[in-house]
Amino acid sequence: MHQLALTGLRNIIGQHDLDEILQERNKINTLLGDNISGSTAAWGLEVQRFEMKDVELPQAMQQVMAMQAEAIREKRARIIKAEAELEASVKLSAAAAQITMNPAALELRRMQMIAEVGAENNSTTVLMIPSDFVSLAHSLNDYLQRQAASRSGADEKP
Question: For residue 10, what is the DSSP state?
Answer without folding.
Answer: H
